[in-house]
Specification:
By secondary structure, this protein is of the alpha+beta class. It has two domains: 24-278, Alpha/alpha barrel (Glycosyltransferase), CATH 1.50.10; 390-700, Beta-galactosidase, Chain A, domain 5 (Distorted Sandwich), CATH 2.70.98. The chain is 29% helix and 21% strand. The strands form six sheets. The chain has an eight-stranded antiparallel beta sheet with strand order 9-10-11-12-21-16-15-14, with no helix packed on it. The chain has a five-stranded antiparallel beta sheet with strand order 1-2-3-5-6, with no helix packed on it. It is elongated. It starts with 45 loop residues before the first helix and ends in a 5-residue tail after the last strand. The model is unreliable at 3-21 and 349-357 (pLDDT under 50).
Length: 705
């Protein structure tokens, strides 16, 4: 969930307290414990209070639920083997070596150079599977801990937390090294999920000492006290949501803390404010990533299911949930991945199990308000009756939010895994998870990915030392992370070999202008924006499903620009399965069973290059499908050197060599773009009026050239 910054915030809060400095009577809400508020601290010792706390928590032999805050697979099944692996071997972050969780834990000795590793360790992620395993058994505390194996698991997790508390319970200390993430913004909220479960279960087990239980309660109180001041609330991205949600969940499950009187209503307000400001009116999450849209959709559905809000607030949440589900369906590609905009992993896999495992490990498949359209596109079951009027909609117009989608069923195979699919993005709402990817697009034919975005890779390295990288808006110094964020890693136009800046710029919101279907069944998508450097960029995509996409980019230099010429490169990033060659300034080859050609039809001199797996002088020709993984793929660059550029590029999956024909400009400004199939002699003609507001298409046969 890392995103916005490399340096954890410095706490601005009251001094943290220890058990030696404050009586439990100052932490617990005496009224909620059924005690007389007039009783003094002299008559209410910590031992008396903790006994009453245990009695209140366990008078109904309560069943406690652990609500995991780790969003990769919160609903996946944890096995006994998984649990034993953690306890016996340790924690394994991604593919790293096992890290021992035996106390005393060496919190700062390993992976000091890995920001994500450090944050994950101090988020207490290593014991998440243990608590999920215990919670999944749906036993009350007495039943749960009467089983020796369950008790061993719980004790292991508790010992882990108590070891952290013994080292890092004071948030007023500026910890160094890996420990700088001990009180990292979202970690504090994540801790509260675990503390709620540990406090509740421990209170119902007399074998857990009063001192250990009081230590948990005090630590939870310190977490709430840390989060209450606005200075420690990360309001501008999803980290703040996880902070507020942790407060909300803890105070719902452990309302006996005095600080919850302030924290609970504050958390409720913050959660609702975040959702209201982070989703567009169209129900699109503003953090530029389909994967984070899915994360927040899952969290909204948890809030609805848990009934934490009033009926009036519940209406708002359900309306947002319905919008977000429909939008999520448009972000799912024919191969059941997320379209790779912004910080998104594609989660590619094989077979029906992988189609359902990730999304429904993330969001519950049995959610009672699940829309069939989401299940349909994720599983690609052939059930057209669930679609409006029995047919699939072909256009997803979210132009107010910065996105447009086309999905057209294959006439030969209506199953959605064979669809034509095109996703177009021009969204800039903040710097959160935003790549330098304005006007990029992904394209599928016959369910096969043709063009793909770079993906997330991961959050690695501290802030860049190179000021020029900071000025361009890069948060991280890892060269691989820098690459996937860069303009040249996306299917868009790069100017003078420089990545578009995302720092100190106005957030334009949406650059999408139009999306429509022409009378000849072409899909037209247009977008326009002005880059920080002053260049105006107008892009038109014209899609002929099953055949080709025509990409027109008009870029104009600023009027006050004194340079006689600029280097413009139109980049296209192909499926790693592509086999291509560059012959006579045309790209030809195959992607799986599909032919592929990339041909410039521009009247300007255009030079094409192909690059794969390059590291020097800069990275190019790489793509990330999974966290911390890059694989080679072909990047095709079309270069124009001129003051202004006018790209007209045809990408086709049809047989027959393409021959470019001269572009004609009519008196009214209409562009007439045409090309001929060398094998069949057929000429295709596209007439574009008023910068894409009207498009006409025709073909006619001619003698072979």
């Amino acid at each position: 969930m890392d995103s916005a910054s490399d340096t954890p915030n410095s706490p601005v809060v009251p001094t943290a307290v220890s058990l030696d400095e404050v009586a439990l009577s100052e932490i617990l809400d005496l009224q909620s414990l059924g005690l007389n508020q007039d009783q003094t601290t002299q008559t209410l010792s910590d031992e008396v209070l903790i006994a009453q706390f245990r009695k209140i928590k366990c008078h109904q032999n309560s069943l406690f639920e652990y609500k995991s805050s780790f969003s990769e697979q919160p609903n996946s099944i944890v096995t006994i083997e998984d649990v034993n692996e953690v306890m016996d071997k340790g924690w394994q972050y991604l593919t790293d070596d096992y890290f021992s969780l035996n106390v005393p834990i060496n919190w700062e000795s390993i992976k000091i150079d890995s920001r994500s590793w450090q944050r994950s360790l101090h988020s207490w992620e290593p014991i998440d599977d243990l608590l999920r395993f215990l919670s999944s058994q749906n036993m009350n505390s007495s039943q749960l801990l009467s089983d020796p194996f369950n008790e061993k698991i719980f004790r292991f997790a508790l010992t882990f937390i108590l070891d952290w508390i013994s080292n890092y319970s004071d948030f007023s200390i500026q910890y160094e090294g890996a420990a700088k993430f001990a009180w990292y913004d979202m970690n504090v909220g994540i801790h509260l999920h675990m503390l709620a479960y540990l406090v509740n279960v421990s209170s119902c087990d007399n074998s857990i000492s009063n001192l250990d239980l009081m230590s948990l309660i005090n630590t939870a109180n310190n977490h709430l006290m840390f989060l209450i001041p606005d200075e420690n609330y990360t309001a501008n991205n999803n980290h703040g949501f996880y902070q507020a949600k942790g407060m909300l969940y803890f105070c719902h499950d452990v309302p006996e803390l005095e600080s919850c009187k302030l924290a609970a209503p504050l958390a409720e307000k913050r959660v609702l404010n975040y959702l209201a400001t982070t989703f567009t009116e169209e129900g699109i999450h503003k953090e530029h990533s389909p994967q984070y849209h899915a994360y927040l959709l899952a969290e909204i559905e948890k809030l609805i299911t848990d009934n934490y809000f009033s009926p009036e607030q519940g209406v708002y949440l359900r309306e947002l949930d319905q919008k977000a589900q429909v939008n999520m369906a448009w972000m799912i590609t024919p191969d059941s991945s997320f379209v790779g905009f912004g910080d998104t992993d594609r989660k590619e896999g094989e077979g029906q199990l992988s189609r359902t495992n990730f999304l429904f490990g993330l969001i519950r498949k049995d959610y009672p308000n699940r829309l069939p359209i989401l299940d349909y596109y994720w599983t690609c079951t052939v059930d057209p009756s669930i679609m409006p009027n029995g047919t699939e909609p072909t256009i997803g117009d979210y132009s107010q939010s910065g996105y447009a989608f086309v999905r057209v069923p294959n006439s030969s195979n209506p199953q959605c895994s064979y669809d034509t699919y095109l996703a177009f993005a021009a969204a800039f709402h903040s710097r959160v998870h935003k790549h330098a990817d304005d006007l990029t697009f992904d394209w599928y034919e016959n369910g096969i990915p043709i063009l793909l975005d770079s993906g997330r890779y991961g959050y690695e390295g501290g802030s860049p030392i190179d000021k020029s990288l900071v000025d361009l808006g890069f948060w991280y110094s890892d060269p691989k992370r820098i690459y996937v964020e860069s303009t040249h890693a996306h299917n868009t136009v790069e100017i003078d070999g420089i990545t578009d800046s995302r720092k100190d710029v106005s957030f334009y919101g949406s650059g999408i202008q139009k999306i429509f279907k022409s009378d000849q069944n072409l899909y037209v998508l247009t977008g326009k924006l002005t880059r920080k450097t002053g260049f105006d960029h107008f892009r038109t995509l014209i899609l002929n499903p099953g055949k080709w996409v025509l990409v027109l980019d008009d870029i104009q230099a600023p009027q006050n620009d004194k340079a006689e010429s600029h280097s413009y490169t139109q980049w296209f990033h192909l499926n790693p399965d592509a086999n291509i060659e560059l012959v006579d300034n045309q790209v030809t080859g195959t992607i799986k069973e599909l032919p592929i050609q990339i041909v410039s039809l521009s009247s300007q001199n255009t030079v094409i290059e192909t690059i794969k797996g390059q590291t020097e002088p800069r990275m190019q020709g790489w793509i990330s499908f999974k966290y911390f993984e890059l694989i080679e793929n072909w990047a095709v660059g079309l270069n124009i050197s001129a003051r202004d550029a006018h790209f007209v590029t045809l990408l086709t999956v049809s047989d027959g060599k393409v021959i470019a024909l001269p572009i004609e400009i009519k008196a009214d400004g209409t562009q007439v773009i045409s090309w001929q199939n060398e094998d069949t002699g057929v000429i295709e003609i596209v007439e574009i009026e008023d910068l894409g507001t009207r498009v006409n298409y025709s073909t006619h046969s001619s003698s072979k050239p």
